[in-house]
Amino acid sequence: MCGIVGYVGNKDALPILLGSLKKLEYRGYDSSGVGFLDHASRLIVLKSKGKIRNLEELINSQKVPFAHAGISHTRWATHGLPSDINAHPHMDGKHGFAVVHNGIIENYQELKEFLKKKGCKFISATDSEVIPHLIAHFYKGDFAAAVRQAIAKLKGTFALAIVSHYHPETLIAARIGSPLIIGIGDKENYIASDVPAIIDFTRKVIYLKDGQMAVLKKDSVELSSFDGKKAAIKIDTVAFNVVSARKEGYPHFMLKEIHEQPKVLEQMLNLRLKNKRLNLEGLNLSDEVLRRSRKVTIVACGTAYHAGLVGKYIIESLARLPVEVDTSSEFRYRNPIIDKNTLFLAVSQSGETADTLAAAREAKAKGAKIIAICNVVGSSLAREADGVLYTYAGPEIGVASTKAYTAQLMMFYLLGFKLAQVRGAISAKETKDLVHDLSRIPSLCHEILNDLRHAKKVSEANSHFGCFLFLGRYVNYPSALEGALKLKEISYVPAEGYAAGEMKHGPIALIDEYRAVVCINPKSHIYDKMSSNMQEIRARRGNIIAIASRGDQEIKNHADYVIEIPKVPEILTPLLVALPLQMLAYFIAVKRGCDVDQPRNLAKSVTVE
């Protein structure tokens, strides 16, 4: 949450800061701002409520000087309503320091009272404003020392970028619990909260570790711990497709990323099934360790949690190993039963999800082996895990996850195969058949995406409903949860996902002609059970949209609309079901005039608890 960009070098900082910030708007768009030093080293801060275009209009309306250094921020509000005043950067009373902050300062009220007694005056309602005042309080001529002393007083999480009137050629970055990277250029250096912000300028990056601080000048970067001990610098080269961070003619990133799914899944299979032999490079656990595992625990948030629920069905079905799934935000507060024989799977697209990181650390402290299923190379979760299974889905800019979700599903199938093999729970022929069926998934996804007109027609015909229910059974119960989440995220229509068998235990009271019900019912061993649920809804005048196997004539007797998917073995259906659910949400949101890529109140990476 929140996007941060900083620059120091010979170029004009403002166009770089503004252009880079636009690439991070998916991290927060309640407000934005820039802080920079003019030719006289005066600290100038400009900020505006709303989207970055509002900030751009503000900047264009003023005569802004050339600047060699500056910081910028796009905000997802935690403390204080979105407003010009609460926007970042924040300054101290003498305008000596400006700070942008991602995270939460838990003891800010205590610090605020301390600083007020020292004569500091606060103008915002944010927790972040205490930081520049603290730095100014400790400043005695040494910029880095003042930042270290201020950081020592902070409790909570933060990623910081700081600029000072007293040191016009210097930026300082620091992090604990929130992601931050340093970009290395030619006579210029960058700070960013995410790679896409600076990929047009450099592919050489330093991933700051928790408890590290960086001092940047145009021709140098010094790294140290918070207590001042110098740290070794490791520069990574980002293998990143710039095109994948652009819309490439699509009206929205979400639609582009929906269309990228066949390619992503095909790339995963090409990498992980070489010559039809399973290759889980990065797992870093021996077959013996996998065999010793007595249970699997999966933790994740949001869409990744739904992928984890599907993972439970996959692993239990194929490997006959008990699996529990928990939301990361609840996991560590219940004193979980974890030991050295627990295989712990932490799932996060960004690898920076605060709750998932905290859950993984809790499990590691209890002796569990941690495997990350992650998309972002070099992320905090990937670095802290015992092994990491990268999905390599490429940057996902749309806030509502699409390709990251199906990539996570694919990784669960591959991991399920692996666990089944080492535990002897599946025969060679069964493995061969499943691998064959899995290899067909990318082309079948293409087939679904080639029929967008029908999905759009169905979506638009149902876009007026004020409430949706999504129903599924067995392996597609999590699909129902994910379908409801997608619709809620981007169209703001109330939607709930249920196990269809639970309808008669309460939710059926909601059914009438004013609500739409999405029934996920491809051919399966529970097809007849699901069909009975559909007839119960039909009897109560519910409007039914069915997702069914191609050629199913019977289901047309129970549904008002049908979206078809190709026939595959039941266990693999979530991979195909995901696409029509995504398209349904997308086209309904577009029809209702919603901001699909940047839905209100949401941000892409949840890096605060």
Question: What does this 3D model show about the protein?
Answer:
This protein has 609 residues and is α/β, with parallel strands linked by helices. Helix content is 34%, strand content 24%. It contains 19 helices and 26 strands. The protein has an eight-stranded antiparallel beta sheet with strand order 3-2-4-1-10-9-11-14, with helices on one face. The protein has a six-stranded antiparallel beta sheet with strand order 5-6-7-8-12-13. A five-stranded parallel beta sheet has the order 18-17-19-20-21, sandwiched between helices. 54% of the residues are buried. The mean pLDDT is 90.
The proportion of residues forming helix, as a percent range, comes to 25-40%
Rg (CA only): 25 Å
Q: How much strand?
A: 15-25%
Main sheet characteristics: 8 strands, antiparallel
Q: Classify the secondary structure makeup into a structural class.
A: alpha/beta
Distance between the termini: 11 Å
Output the strand order for the largest sheet.
Answer: 3-2-4-1-10-9-11-14
Give the low-pLDDT segments: none
Number of helices: 19
Oligomer: single chain
Q: How many DSSP-defined strands? A: 26
Mean pLDDT: 90
Shape: globular
Core attributes:
alpha/beta; 609 residues; 8-stranded antiparallel sheet
What is the element layout, followed by pairings?
Elements: E1 3-9, H1 13-22, E2 31-37, E3 43-49, H2 52-60, E4 69-75, E5 90-91, E6 97-105, H3 108-117, H4 130-138, H5 143-151, E7 156-164, E8 167-176, E9 181-184, E10 188-192, E11 204-207, E12 212-217, E13 220-225, E14 236-237, H6 253-259, H7 261-272, E15 273-274, E16 277-278, H8 287-292, E17 295-300, H9 302-319, E18 323-327, H10 328-331, E19 342-348, H11 354-365, E20 369-374, H12 380-384, E21 387-390, H13 403-422, H14 428-439, H15 441-449, H16 452-461, E22 468-472, H17 477-491, E23 495-499, E24 516-520, H18 527-539, E25 543-549, E26 561-565, H19 573-591
Parallel strand pairs: 17-18, 17-19, 19-20, 20-21, 22-23, 22-24, 24-25, 25-26
Antiparallel strand pairs: 1-4, 1-10, 2-3, 2-4, 5-6, 6-7, 7-8, 8-12, 9-10, 9-11, 11-14, 12-13, 15-16
Helix pairs in contact: 3-4, 4-5, 7-13, 7-15, 9-13, 9-17, 15-19, 16-19, 17-19
